[in-house]
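User: Show me an example of a complex going from sequences to structure tokens.

Assistant: Sure. Here are the input components:
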Amino acid sequence: MSTFWRKSVDARTAVLYLLPSIILFSVFIFYPMFRTIYLSFFLTDQNGNAAINVGFENYQYLLSSSEFINSTKATVLFVLYTVPIGIVLALFFALLANEKLKGIGFFRTMYSSTMGISVAASSVIWLFMFNPSIGMFNRLLSVFSLPQIQWLLDPEWALLSVAISTIWMNLGFSFLIILGGLQNIDEHLYESSRIDGAGYFYRLRRITLPMLSPTLFFIITISLINAFQTFGQIDILTKGGPSQSTNLIVYSIYREAFINYQFGTASAQAVVLFVIILIVTILQFKLVEKKVHYQ
Amino acid sequence: MKRVELIDVSKSYDKQVDVISNINVTIEPGEFFVLVGPSGCGKSTMLRMIAGLEEITGGTLKIGDKVANNLTPDKRDLSMVFQNYALYPHLSVQQNITFGLDVKRMKKEEQRRKAKEVAAMLGLSDYLDRKPRELSGGQRQRVALARSIVSETPICLMDEPLSNLDAKLRAHMRSEIRRIQRQLGITMIYVTHDQVEAMTMGDRIMILHEGKIQQVGKPIDIYNYPANPFVATFIGSPPMNLAKAEFDKATSELVLGGEIRLPVPMDESGKLPTTTMTVGIRPENLYPVTPETKAEDIFHTTVTNVEILGNETVFSFTIGEEEWMAKWSGQWHIDIGDQLPVRMEFESISIFDGQSGELLKRTVDHGNYVTTKEVQA
Amino acid sequence: MKMGLPQKIWIYFLLILTSALVFFPVLYAFMISFMTGPEIIQGKFFPQTFSFENYTKVFSRLPLMNYLLNSFIVSASVMIGQLIVCSLAAYAFVFLKFKGRDFIFFLFISTMMIPWEATMIPNVFTIRNLDWYNTYQGLTVPFFALAFGTFLLRQHFLTIPKELHEASQIAGLSRFKFFWKVVLPVSKTSLVTLGAYGFLTTWNMYLWPLLITTNQSVRTVQIGLKQLQSQEIATEWGVVMAGVIVVIIPTLLLLFLGQKQLQKGLSKGALK
């Protein structure tokens, strides 16, 4: 008994050290995840208690609801607008900022600045810039005597406008991660390729990008997940409008649950969101990891 | 100044094959005991079992007179120096040295005094306030040493402490560690893969191979009388030359690698087996031929490589399927491709059993004596 | 790397142009925050005078000082909470041997795949049942455990030579003391990274405070901004922008100071 007690000291300590995390994860992640799945099969009362078991009816309702289909479409479109462009821009800036030049620190700070600006603050700034009468964008258009655009008020333009502002908001974080990845690349690789007489673009294609692929892989996954989780800018810029053109999935969940008090269907949407993100993550791992070059 | 005793100690992971087995050895108080062997032979594992960092899965470990199998490392009354020194990067040299004392709640004043003392002994006095990263490799090594000394434990374990130093510093630290060990009378258990370290430092050395003891003994005895071909080639540089050999009863000759015939004295021939043997000879026991050399002791070689080291010359040639080396003192003008006569005597060879590798015949004692010896040994 | 002068000029040109574009919205907001209504309507870029009128107005119309303080308390608490909870867990994963370690670690990592928004409905009810609406603990406690943070610290702890652990064992250091006196000080850089990251993300948090603050008592600045924006929008953009500038200054400062650290630390966590 005493040997067992002594030998298990590591295990007992581990329990103690892991307990805070385990309790918090259980209460605020695992339990609510199962609860969400559970609720998605029910109609609920005002207090979110399961009232009537409706089986898959909530899901059937979602599939037949033009509102939800529209929201899914908008979300996918939004992801396609923001992620590729956002990452290419961040990569471009990071490549520029990775040159060893005087004052480069200043430029790095500029590029990363948007990471320090909250979604709420950014949204308010962009809300002003998109303002049809006094905003900067329409003033620019009028300088070039182009037709004015109603940006956030036009169903054709609203999603794109939100996407533009979102690309800007996420730029700082992507930039920092990619720059970090670039700086982890061993300098000797470049030196040896320069001895071989490789040009800039050859080096970019054959050394930088392959060596950067783990970082790119990471930032692509994070960006995709972030894009699916967009909420703040919608709440401030458009409130899902006009005519639901920017009703992205998280905003839709929020409205369904906390404005319409339809916790059952909201939970069903949340489950859909969970599944989408799960698939994205797994696909990312399966598809990209094969091609990613790890050191 | 404590005895360390290992009785039938073995180690296995997940109840699989033993990585170490049947270790029986007693390390005497105040002894400098070296564990040597190629990498992966289990020497570090053995040291870590003595330290209490690895569990002992079989047998008994005694430290002093107490069974220590289940004691935690800090209860075993020992200190340890690691290969990478294991200095705390966030602490100054002084704090590193006194780390263990602080844990034992020694008074600060006392701690400082001891740190100063040890630092003076190791020439670290000017560096007490520096961080490890501001020190050279040799200085870090000294700090690790100081930390071990200051703990005043009767037993000190060292795991390849010199392998990260350059050759010159290593030679210097060898004698310094030896000096300190003698001065303090610590029982030292020292792990290394470097046979030169083992030979020069150890009172006794233990050679481990694949988790088994090959031989334990005084360095010079192991050099002269290796217990098996593995030890023969592991200790000594260049290693002992080996060749397969058979005894030709008709002519009373040993046939080495199918090429060399070496006459066997009458009184020895009876002791040789009729099966295959392995014959070994140290490179320095292959001599140049002189006018007095008996014709039957000479064999002819074709030189395949030459290294002139200034005070000695080493050249290679082929016997059977083996490459042999001979070491002649002084400088010799030898070129690759030269036909060279070499002298080999039966008394200088070691003979091992072809199957078990067991030593069947020792060499004679080659040691010289100073004739006008006045100093007491 | 050596490069020719024309190449250098070209890169500087790109750097200046693009970084100016990136930073422009912030600069623009800063300028607007000093403008009067008519100036804004005229579409100027530089204000006539740098008067702090908008700033005094924003502080008088909103309990902005309270909100700032709330945000600070909440962000600092989450930061400290995360550092404690994550470092304890990371320590257990690296330095303790126990059965099921890999499984529990996998469980931790799997939480990264669960979007926080998918669990928010039951969480809101949990907070309500705990009676944590409009409390600091409601805003902070759910975020103390963080798989990303545990992972980041674990990566750093793994780089600590195991001999350091063994040397401490031989010296007789207890597990907690080794954690406290060796592991944490040695991992200072990762702790700073995680701390800055935790503070930034919490300061910028939007949806959760929106859900569980129903009055001004613990409301954070982000929700204050939303409030300000919906009250003032048509009339006084200058005041709104003054609010924006006040809200972003602490995090921008933190970012400028810790940019290098964050970039190194986060990319370390990103790569296994």
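The lines above are the inputs; the final block is the predicted structure for all three components together. Residues 200 and 251 of chain C are 6 Å apart (CA to CA).
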